[in-house]
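residues and backbone:
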Amino acid sequence: MGRKLLTEHINVPGIDTFEVYRKHGGYRSVEKALKTMTPDEVVEEVKKSGLRGRGGAGFPTGMKWSFLAKPVGVPRYLVCNADESEPGTFKDRHLMSRLPHLLIEGMITSSYALGANTSYIYIRGELLYVLRILEKAIAEAYANGFLGKNILGSGYDLDLHVHPGGGAYICGEETALLESLEGKRGNPRNKPPFPAVQGLYARPTVVNNVESISAVVPIINDGGEEYAKLGVGKSTGTKLISACGHLNKPGIYEIELGVPVEEFIYSDEYCGGIWKGRDLKAVVAGGSSVPILPKELILKTAAGENRLMTYESLSDGGFVTGTMLGSGGFIAMDETTCIVRNTWSFSRFYHHESCGQCSPCREGTGWLEKVLHRLEHGHGHMHDIDLLVSVAKQIEGNTICPLGEAAAWPVAAAVRHFRHEFEWHVTNPAEATRPGAYYSSKAAVGV
């Protein structure tokens, strides 16, 4: 396995306490930043590292920081997006529950770089047990002089708060998160203005993911250039992958970006292959909102090259033959999986989680669910398949936030790569709802 930057000490007994975390090099980045670096120098190191947002978008973190407006006398905020709600993604809650001080250390160092004196961790409402762990760790940081007034005698002040949401997927979108944090309904905002100019309480704000902020710690400890040596091309450093589905060894893996997808699935160092000796059918590589790819395209690009676990390689070919790394929610499906049922399940989720603000999303997600329900339950028609594609196109690009795309892309990709399976559901209505029917049917042989 490659080098571990975030999870090296995750299994050390008591690592969730300040004392043990400190003994294993904890809070060195805070000491280095506050005692030997200016805020701009910290930002520059993050730029050098090539770190890209680990929440899904993959936007360069240092560049995002540099966009922050800095009007004189106006407070700035750093908000950590810990509202991990993407189906198939569970890395952030693991990191927070096992290594809470790593996130807190990253928050302090990042807040210093941005000139924020008040920062927030916005956590998913269902994760109250993680909230208690974070609150305990924050209290320890205050007690040991790493939060509060005049941290380490540097003259820098920082207060850190944890705020639970109400369990709404939409609040993973950064502007909806800010609305919720202000005590309002979590509806996404129109942009511009962007949060970097008018964010929390209409003040300049940066919103970053848990893993992104945690990665600032090794970047400052070892230097941005050292971090950039890991990975491939513009996909630098390491990435936490939530591996689930039909795998022999599901779990959370910290990989060095650039590992071949085939190695990640089949190597004993990682997922150990597909369970029960079955064949791989398809993979959703970055959480439920990214396009699904069949086996032949997830292992190899359209040009026949090995597909790598990087932002660029997974997206090679666009959405015709590629997908996205996204949040790293890696869902593997074996040959018995019903793609229609799986797509319907995803669509039910997005219909339920739509905030209803935009008509294409509010109405379109409902139509996707209804049509997929018809197909899965043996009441579909051939024209329903094209209707799915049409509805997806009308949602995509026509909403305030990316939830519309998140609902449309999986459906469009499923039809693109598995249209024959959708057609089978129409021509075999009596068999459509029986688990594994498509896989075991003679009609599927050779397809």
User: Anything to note?
Assistant: The chain has a mean pLDDT of 95. The chain has three domains: 18-229, 234-334, 339-444. The CA atoms of residues 190 and 400 lie 6 Å apart.
